[in-house]
Design a protein that fits this description.
- By secondary structure, the protein is an alpha/beta fold.
- Among the domains are: 7-36, no CATH class; 120-130 and 137-300, Spore Coat Polysaccharide Biosynthesis Protein SpsA, Chain A (Alpha-Beta Complex), CATH 3.90.550.
- The protein has helices at residues 6-15, 22-33, 66-80, 98-108, 142-145, 166-169, 198-203, 206-216, 222-230, 252-255, 258-267, 290-300, and strands spanning 55-61, 86-92, 114-119, 151-155, 159-161, 178-180, 193-197, 235-237, 244-245, 270-272.
- The chain has a seven-stranded mixed sheet with strand order 3-2-1-4-7-6-8. Strands 5-10-9 form a three-stranded mixed sheet.
- Helix 4 (98-108) links the parallel strand 2 and strand 3.
- Helix 1 (6-15) packs antiparallel against helix 2 (22-33), helix 3 (66-80) packs parallel to helix 4 (98-108) and helix 8 (206-216) crosses helix 9 (222-230).
- The longest helix has 15 residues, at 66-80.
- The radius of gyration is 19 Å and the shape is globular.
């Protein structure tokens, strides 16, 4: 079992004192804090017959995020090879032209999966954004943009996949509308990885509620807070392995039981670089576990270290 002992916590705290920048100090802490937390991910899965249903998955981005989205999609396809295929929906801004969309098509080409591109609508143009791009709201547009899709998995474009999404696609939501990983003890969830019941959202008119809430409330994390605010009591909580965020810091050891931490070692599904430190950024500002992102990025031919 993964142990975050007093000595490890102390050592991480001391290491975090040293470093010329915030990023350097954070990296020093995390190297000790998370050592051994990821071990044989993606290597010990039991063989299975290929899943017969193409799983709907959505990614939302503008031109700036296109290449990063290509890496995320590539990691999903690699992690799922021989196990399942996907209906990939890319909700994009008007600035994503044919050349950029062809980058994504090139990643999917030759696999059993297929990709479609859909332009975001204007329903959230008057919503608060706090400086974030409008693409932030695209995930909440999915119920309207995909009227024939019953349920879908959404993922941010700063994620690396280590496993397929068969189990989560079959997850029983019960009365709940979405499923996500909580990031606080009060059940507040992160919106970077979601299982969404689009039929329920449409039937119960949550889409309209999201538009109103997003315009009336200047939330700190606009899309994420809107989901938490409007869906309280209707969110199923997923285990940490579905959205392991490096931004958790030491809180991860207070929020999640040890069995979930131990599950990351061998059964991690998504690693989420949800912080100011990104693996594609300057070398001195890259987070721990950036090597996993680069292992995939090199295979796309889109990035050079």
């Amino acid at each position: 079992m993964y142990k975050y002992s007093f000595f490890r916590r102390t050592a991480a705290g001391i290491a975090g004192i040293f470093g010329r920048t915030k990023a350097a100090r954070r990296l020093n802490r995390d190297k000790i804090r998370y050592k051994g937390l990821i071990a044989t991910v993606g290597q010990n899965r039991l063989p299975r017959q290929k899943y017969q249903t193409e799983i709907p998955v959505a990614f939302c981005f503008d031109a700036r995020g296109c290449k990063m989205a290509a890496v995320t999609i590539k990691s999903l396809l690699l992690a799922s090879k021989g196990r399942c295929d996907y209906d990939i929906y890319c909700v994009v801004g008007a600035d994503v032209n044919k050349d950029l969309s062809d980058i994504i098509r090139g990643v999917v080409k030759g696999t059993g999966s297929k990709v479609s591109f859909i332009k975001g609508n204007n329903d959230f143009d008057n919503s608060h954004r706090r400086g974030w791009p409008i693409a932030m709201w695209y995930r909440l547009m999915l119920p309207k943009l995909l009227p024939k899709v019953s349920r879908i998995i959404y993922a941010d474009m700063d994620i690396v996949f280590f496993n397929d999404l068969i189990d989560i696609y079959e997850y029983d939501l019960g009365k709940n509308v979405i499923a996500a990983v909580p990031t606080r003890l009060d059940g507040y969830i992160n919106s970077g990885f979601l299982l969404m019941d689009l039929d329920k959202i449409r039937r119960e008119k949550f889409y309209d509620k999201w538009i109103v809430a997003s315009q009336e409330n200047d939330f700190k994390n606009p899309d994420q807070d809107t989901l938490n605010y409007t869906l309280r009591g209707r969110i199923a909580f997923l285990p940490l392995k579905y959205n392991f965020q490096l931004s958790h810091g030491s809180r991860i050891f207070k929020i999640y039981p040890e069995v979930q931490l131990d599950d990351l070692k061998h059964n991690l599904v998504t690693l989420h670089y949800s912080d100011f430190m990104k693996p594609w950024g300057p070398v001195e500002k890259r987070p721990v576990f950036s090597e996993y992102w680069w292992d995939v990025a090199r295979q796309t031919g889109l990035f050079q270290e």
